[in-house]
């Protein structure tokens, strides 16, 4: 085995891959901007980063910015930073980003300490066994902070007043304590004597004109990280590569953005990508990288390469990539490899990737994605990558309405997608919809959708997308609710006040006390009377059978002072019950029933279903209990 860690190790190393995690608003995007000297944060939709992008920082650039002397050796050729979105709903994308990283930056706002997503990120890292550096960001928020742009943090701290330094100290202690409470030992990196076991904290400011501590971060990333994981960073000839995004380009056709984790890719290499329809083997036509320091997805002039060596973010131009799936591996076929075998292996790996279980939850969105097909009723989701697809499905699941997904696809919305979505028109109309995120809708597709009645939803964030759909189905529900209003029967039990029966048969007019539930105008009312026991000589042991007499519907409710009301939940009210079937014999008070017999709302299977579907929010737990009791009484299954 090759010697590791020794200073004499001459192996070629690849750039470490780093991702940035943390709670929303901790400053991940800003810090990323600082690290690469770009301004992405301002341009994002809703301020949320929605794609994994990758930025390569060549070592010369880092040297310059950390003012490292030329004698100081840096063993890695650069640093590849994956831009992971931080919002909660993207946890699945985060998971994917994390799994290909060597090291993570966990950004913590010094004024807020550890927050929900910080802690989630820590667990995620622990699960994937990824080490991290804590960027304790926003030090410029310490009261009275004097800005020292782009200086190493110790130097910047020296320039501060005693007050600032003492606030810094107690906030630092606080953060260390919080880490401790979550099971992690941390220390400011400049005091950390046990870097292999104790996680480093680097105080930073990512504010545009500050940048304190950023040189320290870069230093740790390119000097300390290779120290502790030299074996992992050893350049290896076998290609390890993950697809981040599949893109359509006017000039280039379909291209894929990948992270090349290890190995090298060349023009002319034979590679396999996986699609829902099966493996696609193709030849790399061109390899493009953005200019250094620019984000891979940012538009700009590309550099063409005959060869790209890991680690790098690279755009691959090749025929047949239309159905490649983001989040899966790209497999390089070596001369002499059995192509069939390689294709089978690639597909198996893809299925594993998609259904890989996240130990944290019983069923993950990834599994959900692969399971989705078996769900018969649900809407159609179309996204640009597996990651965003997962984010949408996750968000749909966690939204108040819990919306199922019946099918999905990646890439532009085509006629075929709309065709598939039309299947729901006859099943569940509200699901005849396509949620399209970050994909084009082809003209024919939108024409067909308009003709057939399939709704296509689009928005620039996952949240808005799901919200606009939820709003749509709420509207549909509201309309259906109106249609079903007559069939909704709220449960109630009423006691007739014996001396206050003003008309004893249709319409019955009397005063009642509301014993349970809610009394509404329109509610069908019945009375339950014990059947006459015919064999009077035998004392009845069990409960005698009850007979239900329908009396009609409540046509009005009046309070004691004569006010007409539509519903009441307690007290004594005056009611009128109108028979609603002229062919039925009317039942009269005093003859068929009396004040000892309770009046009940006459529920049915259908009325319960209507309540469940449309009136949940108006029903209390007690109301449901009463429904259960009445159900038994009426022998409803
Ligand atoms: P993200 O959600 O973690 O990506 O956070 P952003 O990078 O979008 O930052 C959230 C907000 O905090 C923005 O208004 C930033 O301008 C601000 N911010 C980020 N880093 C710093 C910092 O170091 N100092 C100060 N004062 N503000 C910061």
List the helices and strands and how they pair.
Elements: E1 17-22, H1 28-36, E2 53-58, H2 59-66, E3 78-83, H3 91-99, E4 103-109, H4 116-128, E5 131-137, H5 153-158, H6 162-181, E6 186-188, E7 199-203, H7 214-228, E8 240-249, E9 253-262, E10 264-266, E11 270-275, E12 278-283, E13 286-290, E14 302-305, E15 307-309, E16 312-317, E17 331-333, H8 339-355, H9 365-371, E18 379-383, H10 386-398, E19 405-410, H11 415-422, E20 433-437, H12 443-452, E21 455-459, H13 462-484, E22 492-503, E23 508-517, E24 519-520, E25 524-530, E26 546-558, E27 564-565, E28 567-568, E29 571-578, E30 599-601, H14 605-614, H15 621-633
Parallel strand pairs: 1-3, 1-4, 4-5, 5-7, 6-7, 18-19, 18-20, 20-21
Antiparallel strand pairs: 2-3, 8-9, 9-16, 10-15, 11-12, 11-17, 13-14, 13-16, 22-23, 22-30, 23-29, 24-28, 25-26, 25-30, 26-27, 26-29
Helix pairs in contact: 2-7, 3-10, 8-9, 9-10, 10-13, 11-12
The structure holds guanosine-5'-diphosphate.
């Amino acid at each position: 085995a090759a010697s590791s860690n020794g200073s004499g190790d001459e192996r070629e190393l690849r750039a470490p891959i780093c991702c940035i995690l943390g709670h929303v608003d901790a400053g991940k995007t800003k810090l990323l901007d600082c690290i690469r000297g770009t301004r992405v944060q301002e341009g994002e939709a809703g301020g949320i980063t929605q794609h994994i992008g990758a930025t390569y920082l060549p070592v010369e650039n880092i040297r310059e910015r950390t003012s490292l002397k030329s004698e100081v050796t840096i063993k890695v050729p650069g640093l590849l930073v994956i831009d992971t979105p931080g919002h909660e709903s993207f946890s699945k994308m985060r998971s994917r980003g994390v799994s290909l990283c060597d090291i993570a930056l966990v950004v913590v706002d010094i004024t807020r300490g550890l927050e929900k997503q910080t802690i989630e990120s820590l667990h995620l890292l622990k699960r994937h066994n990824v080490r991290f550096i804590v960027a304790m960001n926003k030090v410029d928020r310490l009261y009275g902070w004097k800005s020292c742009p782009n200086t190493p943090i110790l130097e910047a701290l020296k320039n501060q007043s005693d007050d600032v330094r003492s606030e810094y100290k107690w906030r630092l202690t606080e953060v260390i304590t919080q880490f401790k409470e979550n099971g992690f030992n941390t220390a400011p990196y400049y005091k950390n004597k046990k870097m292999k076991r104790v996680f480093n904290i680097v105080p930073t400011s990512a504010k545009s004109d500050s940048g304190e501590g950023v040189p320290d971060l870069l230093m740790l990333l390119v000097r300390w990280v290779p120290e502790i994981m030299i074996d992992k960073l050893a350049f290896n000839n076998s290609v390890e590569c993950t697809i981040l995004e599949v893109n359509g380009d006017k000039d280039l056709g379909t291209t894929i953005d990948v992270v090349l984790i290890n190995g090298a890719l060349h023009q002319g290499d034979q590679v396999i990508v996986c699609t829902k329809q099966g493996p696609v083997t193709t030849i790399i036509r061109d390899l493009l990288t953005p200019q250094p320091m620019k984000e891979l997805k940012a538009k700009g002039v590309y550099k063409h390469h005959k060869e790209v060596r890991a680690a790098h973010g690279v755009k691959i131009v090749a025929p047949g990539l239309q159905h490649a799936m983001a989040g899966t591996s790209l497999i390089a076929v070596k001369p002499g490899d059995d192509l069939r075998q390689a294709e089978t292996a690639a597909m198996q790996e893809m299925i594993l990737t998609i259904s890989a279980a996240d130990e944290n939850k019983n069923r993950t969105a990834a599994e959900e994605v692969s399971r989705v097909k078996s769900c018969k009723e649900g809407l159609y989701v179309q996204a640009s990558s597996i990651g965003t697809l997962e984010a949408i499905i996750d968000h749909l699941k966690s939204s108040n309405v819990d919306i199922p997904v019946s099918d999905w696809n990646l890439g532009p919305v085509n006629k075929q997608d709309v065709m598939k979505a039309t299947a729901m028109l006859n099943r569940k109309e509200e699901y005849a919809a396509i949620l399209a995120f970050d994909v084009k809708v082809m003209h024919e597709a939108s024409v067909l959708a308009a003709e057939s009645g399939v709704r296509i939803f689009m928005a620039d964030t996952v949240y808005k997308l799901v919200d606009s759909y939820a709003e749509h189905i709420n509207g549909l529900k509201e309309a259906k609710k109106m249609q079903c209003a007559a069939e909704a029967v709220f449960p109630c039990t009423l006691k007739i006040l014996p001396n206050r029966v003003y008309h004893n048969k249709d319409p019955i007019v009397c005063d009642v006390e509301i014993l349970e539930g809610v009394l509404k105008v329109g509610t069908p009312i019945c009375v339950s009377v014990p059947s006459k026991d015919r064999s009077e000589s035998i004392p009845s042991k069990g409960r005698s059978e009850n007979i239900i007499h329908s009396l009609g519907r409540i046509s009005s409710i009046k309070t004691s002072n004569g006010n007409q009301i539509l519903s009441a939940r307690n007290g004594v009210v005056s009611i009128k019950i109108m028979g609603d079937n002229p062919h039925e014999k009317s039942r009269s008070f005093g003859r068929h029933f009396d004040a000892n017999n309770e009046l009940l709302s006459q529920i049915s299977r259908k009325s319960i279903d209507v309540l469940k579907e449309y009136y949940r929010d108006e029903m209390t737990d007690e109301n449901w209990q009463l429904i259960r009791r009445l159900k038994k009484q009426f022998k409803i299954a």
